[in-house]
Amino acid sequence: MKKLIIKNEKYFFIIAVVFTVLGSVYPAETSFENYLAAGFYIIAAIAWFLIIVNAILNILNKK
After folding, report:
1. 41 contacts: CB under 8 Å, gap ≥ 6
2. Are the C-beta atoms of residues 15 and 45 closer than 8 Å to each other?
3. DSSP reduced 3-state for 42
4. Which residue of 5, 18, 29, 45 lies most exposed, with the fewest beta carbons within 10 A?
5. Cα–Cα distance between 24 and 40 in angstroms, integer?
6. Are 54 and 5 in contact (CB under 8 A)?
7. How far is CA 53 from CA 8, 14, 19, 47, 62, in A?
8. Model pTM score
């Protein structure tokens, strides 16, 4: 799992940025659209979390 996170940092960053933009741009007029936008934000939050974990693992590996 550790190698997967370190190896795919750029993909996590792309996913995080794209889903953050989708969540903020997606129209939220109905309750279904609100849930869909929230789903975009949740996926983006997981990707941002994995980027932070990757940064921590890179710092720990350099020591």
Report:
1. 19, 20, 23
2. no
3. helix
4. 29
5. 9
6. yes
7. 12, 16, 19, 10, 14
8. 0.84
Residue 52 CA to residue 46 CA, distance in Å, equals: 10
More confident residue, 25 or 1: 25
Question: How big is the CA angle at 2 (ends 62 and 18), to the nearest 5 degrees?
Answer: 100
Q: Using CA atoms, how far apart are residues 18 and 43, in angstroms rounded to an integer?
A: 10
Q: How many CB atoms are closer than 10 A to CB 12?
A: 19
- Pair 19, 36: CB distance under 8 Å: no
Task: Report how far residue 44's alpha carbon sits from residue 61's, in angstroms, rounded to the nearest whole number.
Answer: 26
